[in-house]
# Entry
Amino acid sequence: MYGFTQEIEDELENIRFLINELETHGCEVPDGALVYKKINGQFYYYRQYYNGNIKKSEYLGQYNDEKVLKFKAAKFNALRLKVLKQDLALLMNLREKYVRYEPAEIHRRLPSSYKDLPDECYVDDKFERLCDWAAEDYESSSFPFARTGCTTIDGTKVRSKGECIWYDTLYRYAVPFRYEETLKLRDETGRKVAVHPDFSIMCYNERVIYIEHAGMLLKPSYMEDFKWKITTYLRNNIVMGDNLFVTSDNKDSGINSQMIDLFVKNMIKPLVFGNKT
# Structure
């Protein structure tokens, strides 16, 4: 991972949005502090404040009364606004001082006598390991391909249109992956079973994520098999939205290839390339 300047920009945008929302719609912060008394198991809330040197209390109500809720929300929003402004200043300062460390940036900072650097200066050893991992021999599904199988951009045979779109998209973005790698997982009885995710992808931090494309969910037998597969994944800490991502055909057997392209571009590429692209 060569840097996180885009993450800084994204977070600055989020913080500015939240600050604007709070300053535009936030509650006016009342003077004083919220205190309560517990009487016979009931909580009674008061606004405690000073009038000159005299300490005073104003009864607001019980925990769910409107005045109490508004007071709590106003104080919460005030503190949140303060924290957001502190974070904004911190990140803006970091953005000004942070220097990306990819080879091109380091090269740019060197004197002109270093114009022609050796190739080794541009080799990303971490990414090379991911490519080596994808190219290694690995056990994969031995289930025979149907005559209706599809052929990918590099001539590989896959089982469905959805898999073909996923394969070609990963290939086009130069994402290293394994197709139908055999995983040995535990089923509900504790017995080891072989499961074959459509795609296994090792990220830049060497964490593996998995892709499944479900093509025939309206077919009862396919649905039952897929439910078993997802349950088995979950039992083995492979969780949808974390290290497992699932797409599917729609009810008319259509596939949104644009969505898959955007997912690979915006979600998978940063994980694999370490945000260098």
Summary: The first helix runs from residue 5 to 25. Helices lie at 5-25, 66-97, 103-109, 125-135, 161-172, 220-235, 257-273. The two ends are 10 Å apart (CA to CA). Residues 5-97 form one domain.
